[in-house]
Amino acid sequence: MTKRSSIAIKQSILSSIQSSPLTYAQLERKVNTGFRSIKANCEELAFYGLVEIKCTKEHPANGRPSYEVHITGRGIEILKKKR
Fold first, then answer.
1. Considering the entire predicted model, what is its pTM?
2. What mean pLDDT comes out for the span 52-57?
3. Is 4 within 8 Å of 34 (Cβ atoms)?
């Protein structure tokens, strides 16, 4: 198995959240990579304004903070250019 590039992971994250926002855990399963990689790549995408990370102080199921990743208009534009 070859290691995927950081850009491939970012593209996969953007396409995964295009239709609806997902949590870090959902992205981890959908993109098939580790939690740390998802978090770091999402933070970098947020830095460049392609996604927004929204924190829910208390998740209804477990009471812990939960993070949801939303794509921005700029992220959608970038994704369309890549195709």
1. 0.87
2. 90
3. no
